[in-house]
Amino acid sequence: MNRRQFLASSAALLTARPGFAQDAPFRTKYYPVSPGIGLHDLTPAPDGAVWFTAQGKGLLGRLDPRDGSFKTVSLGQGAAPHGVTIGPDGAPWITEGGQNAIARVDPGDLKVTLFRLPEKFAYANLNTGVFDKQGTYWFTGQSGYYGRLAPKTGEMNVFKAPKGIGPYGITVTPKGDVWYASLAGSYIAKIDLATGNATVAEPPTPNQGARRVWSDSKGLIWVSEWNSGHVSVHDPANGSWKTWKLPGELPRAYAVYVDDKDKVWLTDFSANAIVRFDPTTERFNVFVSDKANANVRQLDGRPGELWGCESGNDRIVMIQTIASG
Questions:
Q1: Sequence-distant (≥ 6) Cβ neighbours of residue 94 within 8 angstroms
Q2: Angle at 319 between CA 313 and CA 325, to 5 degrees
Q3: How far, CA to CA in Å, does 176 sit from each of 199, 211, 223, 263, 310?
Q4: What are the pLDDT digits (tens) for 23-82?
Q5: Is the pTM of this model over 0.90?
Q6: What is the DSSP string of 201-226?
Q7: Which ranges of 53-118 does DSSP label H, i.e. alpha helix?
């Protein structure tokens, strides 16, 4: 057994002391995880825990924010997980690119179940996934694919993306529409849930590098643009777009998340920061990490809390709203 397998196979409980910072009306808190574990994505669970993927070690982890402790489980030999989301069944579901499969982990006994992609899609380069209102799991593959999985039957369909390589972020709107973003294709697309066909919508900035997407409460689609450093919003009802450049020099917008107050959160690799955008005032708040090269690749949250993975420092960060703002 090599070192990776040894670390991955143990689900031992580890404890770390959270770090604190203050930026009223917000409080920032850091949760260190094992150095070199390779944090990538996370998602908060209804029970207060936070599930995270550790791409560098092929693990799924569960953080207990109450004391900073966490436990991990191996997703299998050669695993390299990317995205994670909580399904209608309360379990974390993972885009597991290393085994070219969708993985489900039982939150109780941590048993791993794999739903492998068909052989003809041998290297889809799986990225992120989301559940629609019918309980179907939709996922992206950066090699030029997106697909769906029916968890109850295990039936899976994989579709070729309209412009080839690039599908990355994915989101579901309050009424159940599913949209994905294509980083290499520089577009977003709405998926027809019945046929699987994708209809492309292009942001106004050419070659902007649409990386991740998130729907707000009104069904507007917010887009983080990696190449341009912009945040854009698309209104599917009338086809309109609005675009804003993140503050600072040469911003690189990676992740995007819209909170329960319809405030938009993004990550900026150039500024080493998490950025909050208020669409009403069109103003930004910038939360710079207390360590260099944070490289926050993904954001998610729950009311009053924003969560992100500092992949560069192998820490989980939480920004808590402690007053209206």
A1: 53, 60, 75, 81, 82, 83, 84, 102, 103, 104, 105, 129
A2: 150
A3: 16, 21, 18, 20, 30
A4: 569 999 999 999 999 999 999 999 999 999 999 999 999 999 999 999 999 999 999 999
A5: yes
A6: E--SSTT--EEEEEE-TTS-EEEEET
A7: none
